[in-house]
Design brief:
globular; mainly alpha; about 325 residues; single chain; 13 helices; Na+/H+ antiporter like fold
């Protein structure tokens, strides 16, 4: 019973905010235009600030993080290679291939990583989650552009240089870059700027979840039911199960270190995937279905994984 309560307490607050956003949208308080501008605010300001101050205020760089960070980077690379080889063999529509690959390997760690790490493991897990985000975000964005470029029907020939340059346009990456610069060089900030910046950054997660709930719309997924069933099972159950076993049994990652790794592996599909599908003229409806239904089912899969990991004494 204690483990059930622990799992419920970890999952319920986040999805309560999502539900609130859904209800506010239905009540007409969150309008479409307001949600679009709110998402832009989160992407261009709030999350860059959150990442910046997490790095800026870090007490020290713990080099034991390197093993965990390399594991997460390895998961991304292995997943992309496997999916890039397998998915095109079964899916012939180029507009779907890139979407399916992206949605099966890339989770919304930017949105789920910090709050879940804090609620499950406290500040040590948050510090590690920030480090994972700093290391993997540039790689994820670069690979995302490359994958969509390679498979989108109207896409150009994939170019690593162009993908990397496009990835640098992500404001969150610049939050990482400047956070590391200020941390390494010990550059001081005026007290009033630090206080104001931290206060604003704290709003990033609840505001983002609120707008995520406002975007929730039940779509007709009949056309994509097979791709969704396989993709969501892989994203939310198969990949997390396999890679968590590897993390624990082979890399001996446990306790507060395992928490952000677990969220990195188990978070629902990233919102970025839908935005990139629009950008590359891919199957954005399929990407939207992945986004919505992965968020819905992740409420259950996250709960089950947390319950099991807690019951086995791994977190």
């Amino acid at each position: 019973m204690e483990n059930l309560k622990f799992a419920f307490d970890a999952v319920a607050p986040t999805f309560s905010i999502v539900l609130l956003g859904f209800l506010l949208k239905r009540m007409g308080i969150l309008a479409e235009d307001f949600i679009a501008k709110g998402n832009a605010l989160c992407f261009k300001l709030l999350f860059p600030l959150l990442v910046f101050f997490n790095l800026y205020d870090a007490q020290s760089i713990n080099f034991t993080y390197i093993k965990v960070i390399l594991f997460c980077v390895g998961v991304v690379l292995v997943s992309v290679v496997i999916l890039t080889l397998l998915v095109p063999k079964f899916v012939k529509d180029g507009g779907k291939v890139g979407v399916i690959i992206q949605c099966m390997y890339r989770g919304n760690f930017m949105l789920y990583g910090l709050p879940f790490s804090k609620s499950l493991g406290g500040e040590p897990s948050v510090a590690l989650a920030t480090s994972i985000m700093a290391a993997t975000l540039p790689i994820l964005n670069t690979l995302g552009v490359f994958v969509y470029s390679a498979f989108a029907e109207a896409g150009e020939k994939p170019s690593f240089k162009k993908a990397f340059l496009n990835a640098l346009k992500n404001p969150i990456i610049w939050g990482v870059i400047f956070g590391l610069i200020f941390y390494i060089l010990h550059l001081p900030l005026p007290a009033f700027i630090h206080t104001a910046g931290v206060d604003v950054a704290k709003t990033a997660t609840p505001v983002a979840f609120l707008f995520l709930g406002g975007q929730f719309e039940l779509r007709s997924a009949k056309r994509n039911i097979k791709a969704l069933a396989i993709g969501l099972t892989t994203k939310l159950i198969i990949f997390p199960g396999i890679f968590l076993w590897v993390a624990v049994q082979i890399f001996d990652i446990r306790g507060t270190d395992l928490i952000p790794v677990f969220i990195f592996l188990s978070a629902p599909t990233a919102i970025t995937n839908y935005q990139m599908a629009l950008q590359f003229d891919a199957d954005y409806e399929l990407a939207g279905d992945f986004l919505i239904y992965s968020m819905v089912f992740s409420a259950f899969t996250l709960f089950v994984f947390i319950y099991l990991l807690r019951g086995m004494g791994l977190i």
